[in-house]
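Posted in: Protein Modeling Q&A

I'm a second-year student putting together a small comparison for a lab meeting, and my supervisor asked me to include a predicted structure for Tat pathway signal sequence. I've never done this before, so apologies if this is the wrong subforum. The sequence is pasted below exactly as I got it from our records. If anyone can share the structure token output, I'd also love a short note on what stands out.
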Amino acid sequence: MEAMLPTPNNWDENSDKDIESVSPFTGLLNETKTKIASSPVTKTSTFFRKYADARLLFEGFLVFCLVVALISNAGSSHKTDIVDKRSFGPTLPRKPVIFGNTAGLGPDLVYHDTEMMWNKTRMQEIHRNWHSLFPQKSWSYMCSFILKAGRGYITVSAEEEEFEVLHPAFKMDNVFEQGDHYEGHIMAVYHQLHCLSILMTALGTSREEWAMLETQKVEHRAHCVEYLRQSILCSADTTLEGETGAWAKSTGWGQTHSCVDFDALTEYANKRAMWNLTERLLPDSFDPLKVPEHGEGLEDEH
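Accepted answer (user: helix_wrangler)
Welcome! Here is the predicted structure, written out as tokens:
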């Protein structure tokens, strides 16, 4: 005999035992199905079903944890990439330059020789050549020579530049004369070049002479050593150097590097020069953090 299916009229007449047979997936079960569900085989199936559900829940939790971990790592990597790509200065054109000569890295002048190591006069001559590596401006459109201009000190507008101006400008008063005022930044490349030129001129200094130097000058040179160490590691030129032929007298010469275009660098700095130094020098003890009193010496270390 077929079991009588419940109808809307007799739903309320079902006993409490029928309520247990209600499933959100199958609806209201009839009495026959309830009896089948209570059989040993059905109980075993129910046990395995519960075990499978628990295992599925556990595996789902593991997958969720894995997804969260992957998203977290991806977010951290993304943030690192953003930091690595941030620019705190202008991005300038680059070009290949062969080390070992002056082509591509400033005017064709002598920037070193062995004589400068023991001849003070020769050292001064070569040091003057280094001045040409700093941003220049023509003294006259009719002249063929150039004189010092901003020496890497520039003024920029954070709103107009494509890079992030991370630190506020130096504020400098009484640099050349009482009452003058300047605000600007110095491009790190020129700070580095300045430090190297200072160390170069100190190569022939004896220990006795070092002992006689003013404390400020000794500290200045010590600063330059550490500043250049950090600058080299920061720039981290990863060019792979190899065999370049018999012409190279020293390791490193003849190697081709990808370098910032020197002309583009000079043009950028000249357009934004904070001051014009074509007819005057910075005081020898000039420091943008501590401007010297008016009237101090003008020995050109900068």
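A couple of things worth pointing out for your meeting: DSSP finds eight helices and seven strands in the chain. The helical segments are 16-19, 31-37, 40-85, 120-130, 188-201, 207-212, 215-235, 262-271.
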